[in-house]
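Students often ask what a holo structure prediction actually looks like on paper. The answer is less mysterious than it sounds. You provide the chain, you provide the ligand, and the output is a string of discrete structure tokens encoding the 3D arrangement of the protein together with oxa(dethia)-CoA.
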Amino acid sequence: MSLSLKPRNSVRAKISAVGAYVPPRLLTNADLEKMVETNDEWIQTRTGIRERHIVEPGTATSDLAVEAARICLANRGIHPSELDAIIVATVTPDMLFPATACIVQAKLGAPNAWGFDLSAACSGYLYALQIGAKLIESGAQKKVLIIGADVMSSIVDYTDRSTCILFGDGAGATLLEPCEPGEIGLIDYVHEVDGTGAASLNMPAGGSLHPATHATIDARQHYVHQDGGSVYKVAVRKMAELTECVLKRNDITGADLDCFIPHQANRRIIEATADRLGMPLERVVINIDRYGNTTAATIPLAMDTAIKENRIKKGDLVMLASFGGGYTIGSTLLRWEF
Ligand code: UT7
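The corresponding structure tokens follow.
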């Protein structure tokens, strides 16, 4: 195995802490059986989901994000005032503006941090991670908080059985800092967008194209719409393709990875992708059974699961992979440094 660490500025970025938070309220498959025509067996076999957490009315994405951020910073032992920047990846911001990052900055008490939101659906966390890494690598910033957070229950149609069984609410936060001598941190990434996929996964109204009207509400256009079958096929193919690309250009194979942390949209998508990459399932982190698809939060939530289950340790070679609305696709290779 030889990692082709390309020459670059001397500063490298690493993830130095993780924190995650889900709201306490559970929505189980049995609960959904009472709401739409579905059943636990169908949901578990087709998706791998048993339950998901959803917020009580009045709880917003920033609330989950702040909880995750506090845990992350406490794990690292630093105060919010030490943060230089906060990036929040989300498709369910508290409101269209100001950015949820601004609301988080105020609630967290991080007066020295600037920040912004990033919209890339389920790939939002990976895209934000790379933007944050560039801030660190440029030398401009020393502590950047990357948050993936979504309250999907605010845009899910609980009369549509094809989507309402899939999604949950949650938040994950990771701190990015410069590597110490001898550390490697983030190694490589590939991102791709295929905008022709926009029609297959979207929320049609509420933006400038279709501002909210009685008609858009009556047509149920303020909810997630998904052509699940089309998304499924592209998700497996593209997540595997981009991950293969990162593996190849670093002269490694799936067998060299200690841990694979993919976006959690469907257990079958994860297994099919791992199979294509030659990754044994015991090295793949899967927690979709407990959380469902939390969109931008799935990858940091799965990092948290990996830490709590002692499945990841300092020095491990880790691959992250995502696929989401857009379409947006991402794959990131890193060394785990704590
Ligand atoms: O994170 C963003 C990216 N999103 C994804 O990656 C999601 C990708 N797509 C998927 O995960 C899957 O396509 C789903 C889980 C959404 C659906 O699974 P599927 O195996 O593709 O099912 P399907 O949509 O082809 O539906 C099969 C059958 C249909 O009935 P007929 O037409 O065969 O009679 C559906 O009406 O299952 C029916 N069905 C349900 N039955 C019980 C659809 N939803 C349900 C349900 N309960 N909740």
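The mean pLDDT is 97.
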